[in-house]
Amino acid sequence: MATTRNCPVCDTPPGKAEVFLEENIDQSRITGLSFASRKEPEYMCHRFMRCPTCDLVYVDAPPSQDALAQAYHQADYDSAEEGNDAAAAYIHAIRSVLARLPERKRALEIGTGTAVFLERLKNEGFAELVGVEPSVQAIASAPEHRKPWIREGIFVESDFEPASFDLICCFMTMEHVLDPKSVSDAALRLLKPGGAFVTVTHDYTSWVNRVLGKKSPIIDIEHMQLFSTKSISYLFRTSGLVDVQAERFANRYSLRYWARLLPLPQALKSRIGAFLSGNALGRQKLSFNVGNTIAAGYRKV
């Protein structure tokens, strides 16, 4: 039986929280893609509670760390094109962060996938690149020249020297970890003075996620918590990061991929997908603000 936990950001007991969404899991529908990035939505989830203190929505009785690690280790990978698109959007969104860094020597990405974003950072002048990724399929899908940058497994702070990174990134991963506060706290300690911690997270309070409700793609069995701009900012500040900023930004993906996220009957969505896969219209890149937040904080100089 899963152990009930306090809010993983502010430690408020779950007895003070309200139910945000009841559990909805069909074990027969769980596949190798259930714990893969940018999959087609399944709309399954553990029970979510909403914290009245920090505004986080979180699973109060999550699977164990070992169970999660095993699920991600075995997960399939099927998002190379979307990974490239996401990396392009992220590098554009953090231009102001990069401009502020005292140095661009060493960068860490937690949840690096095929390390496509690390390649973007290499092009920005970073000399040493390190990525942590639990999925063996994602690592196997990486080009050979990126594989030396990737360490297989779950992020562990003690694997790295304190105050050794100029930039630490964690994109669409903070929802998946069991203890986001420990990740944020660790980032502060691993950063050099003046270094930055940057995340991209889903915002459950955005208009699109409020409209879609239970049919939002963020309602997912992978997600142990869901953030708002308030809760991600709260997390950064209580970890000791300074000059914290959190704002929504637009993602840019192909029309074919956007169609995969639509809450339509599967038969209809399959027909739309087949049509878009066969022509240039489906490959057209479109930018939308779909309720994602980019947040940045710095280690005090």
TrEMBL record:
Record's keyword terms, sorted: Methyltransferase, Transferase
InterPro entries xref list: SAM-dependent_MTases_sf
Molecular function in Gene Ontology: methyltransferase activity
Pfam families assigned to the protein according to its UniProt record, in alphabetical order: Methyltransf_23
Alphabetized CDD domains for the sequence: AdoMet_MTases
Signal peptide: none
Protein name (Swiss-Prot/TrEMBL): Class I SAM-dependent methyltransferase
Biological process (GO), any one: methylation
Domain of life from the UniProt record: Bacteria
Source organism of this protein record: Variovorax terrae
